[in-house]
Design a protein that fits this description.
Elements lengths: L2 E2 L2 E2 H40 L2 H34 L2 H35 L1 H4 L1 H30 L4 E3 L5 E3 L2 H5 L4 H29 L6 H35 L1 H8 L11 E8 L4 E8 L2 H7 L20 H31 L6 H9 L3 H15 L4 E3 L3 E2 L9 H30 L24 H15 L1
Length: about 475
């Protein structure tokens, strides 16, 4: 078998796509929530005319612009991989998934791009009303963009509304069923809420950082920290509820994934335990050193203490997902979700006591949790995508039958190139964002720099030249 550093072409192609997707989604997960946050800040400024809200808007607008740009650039690479590494998959699923991805560009991306310039530069040029409308359209556009992409991904997990043609291609039969497939509403709600929480904890971490540095009198810092803690307290419980609903939907349509998430190698006819920790041994088909709570898994998944749950012993070996990755990434996501809830409840207690801006341990906790949303989102997507293996279209198209006829050397070389370029380019962008975050918002915050006029390659226009000429001639007259 052709290999590169011991990995075959299929695994290398999976690693490459997983790396680029994980790197890419960091930015949309942030910009989706940040676009909505900016719209709220702008609305509060227009209603109250409090300079602190305008300062916050300008402060986060610069960070949003950079994040949005890096998200767009990092996402372009993925579309090319459908043709390079996954041509068989693209050929077979193209009639269904191709139009959906085109709709994302024609609706959401065009909406975002069309109003982004007005949002960034148009406050003094178009008036408050149109500028507010532009902010709303950018926020709505990011949500619509996520909806189309989540629909594409959900169809791969719960395919419906298709027929298989004579050539083996998936052909659309009912677009409504294709788009609104069984897992789509759960994934969309869970993903959007995760994006909002991710942004809330970044904003809260920045606010906590500046509070710890002694900027308690800065009203903008206090507002950003307070708003983020309200989001944590209100949205974290909602996210846990949505995650539970998503898990029950996954149990219905992808039971093998849930078995791997729970670490259930064996069936439990009289109630399954909740395994908190352990070392999955997939070859032996057992969970070593398991720390478990009896029957709690049945209570969570079936709402019945003694409900039977099937295990991976009911799944053929060649259809089992990689248990260790799914088991541990799921626990990372759950642990961070519980920590987010804890910070939210802690902030409510501090707010009730009147110590929200003075309780330094709360600020340290919020600062520590600032990147937690990115980790949770990445862990959640790893649980979802690795848990779908060995299929690209669940139950219908195997991953091994989806790749292009490429050698491992070619895929491995391009993977190394991606890793080097991504960490260099986007690492520099991330460092610049951290630099912007390192200073507090000021009352005279400049926002995105606006040139006094259009940039002209000639450096001078005929009107300016005529004006300069008349200025020279006047003294002579």
């Amino acid at each position: 078998m052709d290999t590169f550093l011991g990995f075959d072409a299929v695994l290398l192609a999976r690693i490459q796509f997983g790396f680029t997707v994980a790197f890419h989604f960091i930015f949309p997960a942030f910009s989706i929530g940040l676009a909505s946050y900016l719209a709220v800040l702008n609305a509060l400024w227009l209603r109250r005319r409090d300079p602190a809200y305008l300062a916050l808007f300008k402060y986060w607008l610069k960070i949003f612009a950079i994040s949005f740009a890096m998200g767009v650039v990092s996402g372009i690479v993925m579309s090319y991989q459908f043709g390079t590494n996954w041509s068989a998959y693209a050929d077979l699923t193209g009639p269904v998934l191709g139009p959906l991805m085109a709709y994302e560009v024609l609706t959401a991306f065009f909406l975002e791009a069309g109003f982004l310039g007005i949002m960034l530069f148009g406050r003094e040029k178009v008036g408050d009303g149109l500028h507010m409308f532009a902010c709303l359209m950018v926020a709505v556009g990011t949500a619509i963009s996520a909806s189309w992409i989540i629909s594409v991904n959900s169809w791969m997990h719960t395919p419906q509304g298709y027929i298989i043609g004579d050539t083996g291609q998936f052909l659309p039969e009912d677009w409504f069923e294709v788009i609104f497939n069984p897992s789509f509403p759960y994934r969309l709600a869970h993903s959007l809420t995760a994006a909002y929480l991710t942004t809330a904890f970044v904003v809260g971490g920045v606010g906590a950082f500046h509070l710890l540095r002694g900027h308690r009198v800065n009203r903008a810092v206090r507002i950003m920290f307070s708003m983020s803690m309200w989001m944590a307290a209100l949205v974290a419980p909602v996210q846990i509820f949505l995650g539970d609903a998503h898990g029950l939907n996954t149990l219905e349509h992808q039971p093998a994934k849930v078995m791997a998430m729970e670490g259930h190698f064996e069936s439990h006819p009289d109630g399954a335990p909740l395994i908190l920790f352990g070392l999955p041994d997939q070859e032996a088909g057992e969970m070593r050193y398991a720390v478990e709570i009896p029957n709690l898994s049945s209570l969570i998944l079936k709402h019945d203490w003694d409900a039977p749950l099937a295990g991976l012993d009911t799944i053929p070996d060649d259809e089992e997902p990689p248990v260790a990755i799914v088991f541990w990434t799921f626990r990372v996501m759950i642990a961070i979700g519980m920590a987010m809830l804890g910070i939210g409840l802690w902030s409510l207690w501090a707010r009730w006591r009147g110590t929200l801006y003075t309780q330094r341990w709360l600020h340290r906790g919020a600062l520590l949790m600032a990147p937690s949303g990115f980790v949770a989102v990445t862990a959640g997507w790893m649980t979802t995508e690795v848990g779908r293996q060995p299929y690209t279209v669940y139950g219908l198209l195997r991953t091994a039958d989806s790749v292009s006829p490429l050698g491992a050397q070619a895929v491995g070389t391009s993977l190394i190139a991606f890793i080097v370029i991504y960490f260099t380019v986007f690492g520099a962008g991330a460092l610049y964002i951290l630099r912007l975050m390192s200073r507090p918002p000021e009352p005279d915050e400049r926002g995105v720099r606006v040139e006094p006029g259009p940039i002209r390659t000639s450096g001078i226009t005929p009107a300016a030249q005529e004006q300069d000429t008349s200025a020279v001639q006047k003294p002579a007259e």
